[in-house]
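Thread: "does anyone have the structure for this chain?"

Original post by V.I.:
We have the sequence but no experimental structure in hand. Need at least a predicted one for the grant figures.
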Amino acid sequence: MQFYIQTILMVLQLLLMALAGGMVAILAFWMENRQVEEDTNKVLALVSDAITRDTQGLLTQVQQRATDFGLLGQKNLLNVSDASQIVPIFQDLINQNNLVPGMEYIDDKTGHSFHVGRLENKEVFTLEVFFDPVKKGFASRVFLEGDVQRLNPKPAVANPIDPREYVYYKDFRNKGPGWTNVRPRTNNLYRMHEPVFSFVFPLRNPDHSLQGMFIIDMGMKEVGKFLHEQAEKIGIGGTAFAMEKNQKGKIVVIGHDYKGISGEALQLQQGELPEFANFPDSRVQAFGRFLEARMKTGEDPFDMRETGFTRLTDDLGKEWLCAWSNVFPLNAPEWIVVSLAKEDQLYADSWQRLTRFSKALLILFVFSLPLGYGLSRFLTKPMETISIEAEKVGRMDIIPRRLPTHPVIEIQRLRTAIEEMKAGLLSFKKYVPTEVVRRVVQSGKEAIPGGEKRVLTILFTDLAQFTSIAEKLPADQMVALIGDHLAMCSTIVDQHQGTVDKFIGDSVMAFWNAPEDLVDHPLQAAKAALKMQMELAEFNRISQEKGLPVLSMRIGLNTGNVIVGNIGTSERLNYTALGDAVNLASRLEGANKHYGTRILASENTVSGLQGEILCRPVDFMAVKGISQGLLVHELLGLVKDCSADLLKQAELTRNAWELYQARNWSEAANAYGELRAAFPQDELARRMEERSQGFIKNPPGSEWDGTFHATSK
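Reply from O.Q.:
Generated one for you, tokens below.
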């Protein structure tokens, strides 16, 4: 019995409807969460207001301290010019309050200033800046906290400026008390780079002229830590931080942890607050983007009078509920204090109910799992088998394999189509060698006319006197013999990562380094040529056992620039190579007849053999159709496998060739004669000996460059 796949899907749909009850539970959870979110916003608003009030109270406390000092000075209850009075008071306040890293008094008449600050090691120091009449300029000295009498000054700033030239001093010269912008502290050893937010109280004389200024610094890092600690105390499972729009219109961050800021974002080292985009906390970055988007619409979130709410997602995908409100300290830029709470902590009860719902759904899922698995395997198993078979067909791995039948009509039709395609390709395989088709298919090149210039190593083979052999054999034996020979050659080419271009009668044309790149293509082509000659010996042994004639093969190799690609028309293409380098390889194959050699290779090919192939020089020749001469070598074997006799044969040949090149005809003839005596079957030695003897009788003219011109292929 067979079914349409649509019928099976309908059955599955009915089964899925049984899970609708779970969806009802999820919907109920969603509705409840909406109510929880409203309640959560109320709680978060209370938390945000509490943190904002604490922050406002902190600023008010600092304002009050500075105001108290200022009023005492104006009423002459505190001698602000006497360091022995104001420095201990400053030191006590700094030791008692971690949020205050520095306090300062600047005298308007003289520019004399006392700055009491805290180093990172918690040590308290006093930096005194005064006018030096000897140097006629301002000088400075530093006293540590234990040096009450200021008897042991330390080196300080080399050339300090007049404190009355500080930007914030000049800003408040004609103002009342107020907060400065966030600013860097003076860049020296005793004024840290950390940015500060200062409250300034100008002291006035009875005639309202300026007497001096009290300055209390608040460290921004400490303020950020204060906000975070307040959030932890309340227990919202999150954090709190502040943001400010600076004078450049950029949104900067006052946070509790500045680790991770790097590169151009190291603004803290320059005494500035980091922009939100450079802050290492992804939650802060997300809120900064939220504010920036609102500002682009014309809103000013830094001038809100009510608490705002939003939801953020950090880099880990966690959801955070966010509330923010404004802080309006005296005469200062406006801040936004932001409170973040973990959504899962505020939604704990809802998540517990969801867990119970999930357990119920899990039980339902477990019971439906075996049925769903069985149905899915019923469909996917045969399709997986067919897919694997199709991939094998794409790789030309075509072996008759019967696929199992299946009751689903569409799957059965697909199985039948695969079987019919395999049958057609098996028939096509009898006309075109499988390896050729596989190489073209696996190349990944689109089958359209076109080519590219590449450096290839080209190989040509040819069987000696095969025409006369073919005339003596019946047609079926001749076809079988040549087919087995070509299959042997194409297999070896494929084993050495080459591409069979074409069969030309009993000849093979192949090349390396196309369509895929191959770094050592000359070496692979040479190894393939040697393997062909070695396999031919075994091929001939088997042929003799069958009563078939012995074959002799000549091979030519050349490396050079060609045009390679799909050559032909849009209806009929041939992936082949064209150019002089191809013609030269063909001529070298034919040149074996002139020297009695088996494998000839050009100098371009030999130079890429990496010393792994034993070669010997043959001649400096110009083949027919190519006027330029080139050095031709014979490949003898792999160096690691060569016998002592073969090494000796190569050495004797090189010695004789050097004498021949030097025009020492008599010595060259003797050297080639010695080679022939040692190796009587060496046809190259015989022919070069005869040529040398001929030159003894009729030496070539002075214009002779050593090139032998072949007059036939």
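V.I.: this helps a lot. The longest strand covers residues 553-568.
O.Q.: and The chain has 18 helices and 21 strands.
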